[in-house]
Prior knowledge:
Aldehyde Dehydrogenase, Chain A, domain 2; GABD/Sad-like; succinate-semialdehyde dehydrogenase (NAD+) activity; six-stranded mixed sheet; Aldehyde_DH_dom
Amino acid sequence: MTATIPTTRTYRTHNPATGETLREYPFLSDDELEAKLALAHQAYLTWREVPIAERVALFVKVADLIEAKLPELARQATLEMGKILPYSLGEGSGAVSMFRYYAEHGEAQLADEVIESAGFSKLVLRREPVGVVLGIEPWNAPLYQAMRATAPNLILGNTVMVKPAEICPGSTLMFDEIFREAGFPEGCFQTLLVSTEQVSTLIADDRVRAVTLTGSDRAGSAVGEQAGRHIKPVVLELGGSDAFIVLDSADVDLAAGTAATCRLVLGGQACALPKRVIATEGVADDFTEKYVAAFASQVVGDPFDEKVTVGPMSSQAAADLLQEQLDDAVAKGATVLLEGGKVDGPGSFFKPAVITGVTPEMRLYREEAFGPLGVVYRVADTEAAVRLANDSPYGLGGAVFGEAEEALAVAGRIDTGGVGVNTFLGSPTEAPFGGTKRSGVGRELGGRTGIDMFANLKTYGFPV
Length: 464
């Protein structure tokens, strides 16, 4: 590795419900980072030779350990990020399901494929590992996201180094002990507390063979540029401003309930949550009334309180940004349907709000709103709904509610990586997840799809 400028910065975690500092974690020195990278590379040379049956057995152990430690893991994630405890428990359960899925299906997904071709008795396509994979992961789902980068790569035979967000390193660090306890060879999984400069050094190092990032499109642009410069595969899962289209033929009660629930999961702080509701004229009034009522019923407060439905935002900076976006829209003529916004006092609380009448002059028209802010667009008809849905720099996901055949036809016209038809799609383990446009490149999960992103798809030819 080339030298980097020494840093004395630390990862600093805060409780967003109180504002108090929880802990400081020092950045790795350059020498410590070099030792971890050397260990990951050496572990790869061993791990790639471990039979698939043994890998599967270790995956089962990891799933069992995550499940056993779920209360502890979830508490840490809620302390650092602020989402209510049931969401953190659900996030941890998602990580468990991921390892059980690859334990059950990994061997079949890695099986050789025979290809018929004239001039050969057969061609064999084999998925082989490539080496160390660097995962750069966000703060909104520190348990799930770290494992989403890890599981497909480990089952393939790669080793993984994960850089967590600076506000929630404690959540990801807990996995280092889990992998050790499960019996994985040392170095197969490591959490890295490193600076931006050290990340650049890692990407440039020949031992790091691929990079995956979940984060903002700005971060994705920077990491994608660096990976491209060093000719390395990269998966970028970036922002989203998903449209939730409600057609005249929709079940309005179902649509309003689903849209509100999706907008408020994790306090609205997830890329794959629908952020723009687009309702056609025939149902707009009925839908909006029910949608606003759902927002108004939320209870904001301590994320460990069972009665609370919306915890604090992840940081004061996040709450400040959402308030700026809301203020900008209102100042330029948006209509407030439900008053909300930053709450005075300790913590970074934001009372859910709903607005309508957003126009292209407003920041919210183009920017991703990361928090409990509902935006409702009223349009004349289906054609207008499709145009508005696609008039975004993002293309991660979306949803269409209406009569089944009509909704499916509209869904086919939405320029996104996925779409739910009368349901919220999210990111099921079994399906590829990723987007178009500024929402990124490549796909995660989805069985072989997620594996293939960082595999050497190697073809073997045999004579007639």
